[in-house]
Amino acid sequence: MEEKQNGHSDHEMKGGGMGKRGVTRPMAQMQMQHHEGMEDDGEQQHEKGRDHSMMMSDEMREKMLHTHHMQTLWVYWALVILGIWMVLAPFTFDYGRAVAEPSGGREVWLSLEQRIAFMKWSDLISGALLVFFGWRSLTPNRPYSLWICCFVGIWLSMAPLVFWSPSEVAYLNDTLIGALVIALTVLIPGMPNMIMYMKMGSETPPGWSYNPSSWPQRWIMIVLAFVGWMASRYMGAFQLGYIDHAWDPFFGNSTREVLNSDMSHAWPVSDAALGSLAYTLEFLMGFMGSPSRWRTMPWMVLFFSILVIPLGFVSIFLVISQPLAVGAWCTLCLATAAVMLPMIPLQLDEVTAMGQHMVQAKRRGDNLWNVFWKGGKPFEQNKDERSPELVEFPQKPGKVFIASVWGMSFPWALVLSTAIGLWLMFAPAVFDVNIETRAADISHMGGALIVVVAVTCMGEVVRAGRYLNVPLGLAVAVWPWFVEDGTLALNIIRAVSGLAVAALSLPRGIITEKYGLWDKYVK
């Protein structure tokens, strides 16, 4: 009874404990009302009530849309206020005072005067757009206005990178307001007009033993993205010239050398600040959607996965290539790679569930274009009864953490392969081999790639990928003998390590979860 008075029922807390935020809240409340009205009539009546909630009329959905709009009206006023803030920013802060020059004498594509002018005009135009379309959003059923505001927020996050903002105040203001605008348009109120087409139903994919879109599963991604965001922002601030020193606790001046290297200067924008933008979007997208988003928002799961998986591999490759291209290590760069690497296997299960739903929808004859953009009807009715409530984290952090890594197991063979790969990365320093030699390059690159494959394949849906470490291990074992600048001791160590990695890549290891249609590929 007390829970009902507080407005929080058990149903709201399923799927990880954050309840049904934003666009799903009115629909969740309606389901709760159905449940409360039918619970005395038996299970059959309950199922009928649920089916009815899934087949709502357009008139009912429109009424819910207006109700939801009234509940979140403050959001659209906030967009107008932030727009006014951005219009006034160039007049409040002098973007041409105490200007910063990019680090390392980097040449950029704009002159100082152009950088100042472009930042001012960008803020003025962005602010005006927020005021105009934010005002339009005060009227219900105007999703395009909200999406335009969202893209303005993305642009505000990008503009200081594109224009090499000479003012740290402008950089901070734009990136902060940009993140707030994105949150206010598609996170807090939910996806624009999603009430009009969202299909209620199952939370756990058919045949799966857990829900890869539950809040505990997304919580760990959000935390890792935030850590990467902060580290990348610090390095970006150095490259943009806002700070004079790049701190490194282990490699002395190496971080400065890496951030000012030719490899870094080859990018038209600050590569560290670009990484900060990617982590910002990953952080925000972690909050998007309900615990059923693998089914209701396939497009969002795909875009989020593109940010995490292929772009994550590119980012990691750039980091591990630093000893080869620059001849130096960067502690914060390694930290961002260490943050990004576990995000890859942690995200692979959700995109697999989304892919399974698309395959099943195609077999059923659904329009895949509509399913991709608007979600699909469920194939069964279930609730996520297994995922713990995220609100339990302060009292039961271990339980929530374990739920956050479902789908990722740690077989001893892969753990040992990871340890060997890390050892290979730093073995040249132990044996006093110069970092710029080919012998060192083999260890650095080979060890890093072994770590990437081993950790990625801790994700059970891609466990078969562990076989990639067989040729990698053999290459590490054999190749050094054809290089003249190594040492006998290091060559022997690498031969033993490489052969061990190849052997350790053969056993599959434990599989702890079920993956529906994908089970046959978990080998």
TrEMBL record:
Pfam families assigned to the protein according to its UniProt record, in alphabetical order: SPW, VKOR
Biased composition (Basic and acidic residues): 1-14, 33-50
Its membrane topology: Multi-pass membrane protein
Domain SPW repeat-containing integral membrane positions: 119-185, 412-506
Region called Disordered, residue ranges: 1-23, 31-50
This protein's UniProt keywords: Disulfide bond, Membrane, Oxidoreductase, Plasmid, Quinone, Redox-active center, Transmembrane, Transmembrane helix
A GO term, aspect molecular function: oxidoreductase activity
Entry's transmembrane regions: 73-93, 116-135, 144-164, 176-198, 219-243, 299-320, 326-348, 400-426, 438-457, 488-506
Residue ranges annotated for the Vitamin K epoxide reductase domain, each copy included: 219-347
Endpoints of the signal sequence: none
Cellular component, GO annotation: membrane
Compartment(s) where it occurs, according to its Swiss-Prot or TrEMBL record: Membrane
Broad class of where this protein is predominantly found: membrane
Protein family (similarity comment): Belongs to the VKOR family.
Protein name, entry field: Vitamin K epoxide reductase
Species this protein is from: Pontibacter actiniarum
